[in-house]
Amino acid sequence: MARSVIALVACMFLIAVQPCMAQDGSSTAKPQGSDETHAPARFDIDAQPLAKALRAFSEATGIAVLFDDALVASLSTHGVHGNVDPRDALRILLVDTGLEAQFASMNAFTVTAAHVSQPADGEPPSARGARDVAPDIDGTRAQAIQRAIEHALCAHKKTMPGAWRQAMQLWVDDGGAIVEVAALAPSGNDDRDAMVVQALMGVHLPSVTRRFNPVTVLVAPSPDGARRCTGGG
């Protein structure tokens, strides 16, 4: 079953459905390339320097993440905690770093500077993300998912996107309703995290979203968040 990572960056919405793998090349906890290597697993990687986190990821998965020490030297990750497949875990580790993982071989990913394509004139960021990264989810559905999550988070002042970050997984039932929310990287405020879960439970997304269960949602800080919630963006 396909899975999806959604990046909700102050309501700028990207959907990514890509293969994943990863390791710094030292020790391996599992044989590289095995089915077990890419199966969902428990990750407990704390916020820390990115290079150290990528090595921890490699040791936990047996997948190679190849990176230039100079590229990641000054970068940190917010970490990841929860049961998730390696692809999603790696994406979460790279949130806010300006880096992305590129497929290098059957058993390895290379971490490089993220490529930012220029949008067509008048094209909203949400549609651009759906078009460039996940052609199997059309722009209309991507924007519908964005609006539903954005509306739910904007309903309460404490959950408005803009000044906080959080990674979570959503499970959707046959009718498109969110029936389960699990935190992968908490925002640092337990009250807000609980309110986010409460706000998203029962929210209806396009029913096709169920094909990507669980959907990983990344909410990252941006000064535009609150303004978009009030209709200014």
UniProtKB/TrEMBL annotation:
The keyword Cell membrane does not apply. Keywords: Cell outer membrane, Membrane, Signal, Transport. The keyword Hydrolase does not apply. Residues 1-22 form the signal peptide. Residues 63-114 form the Secretin/TonB short N-terminal domain. Coiled coil: none annotated. GO terms for cellular component: outer membrane. Transmembrane segments: none annotated. This is Secretin/TonB short N-terminal domain-containing protein.
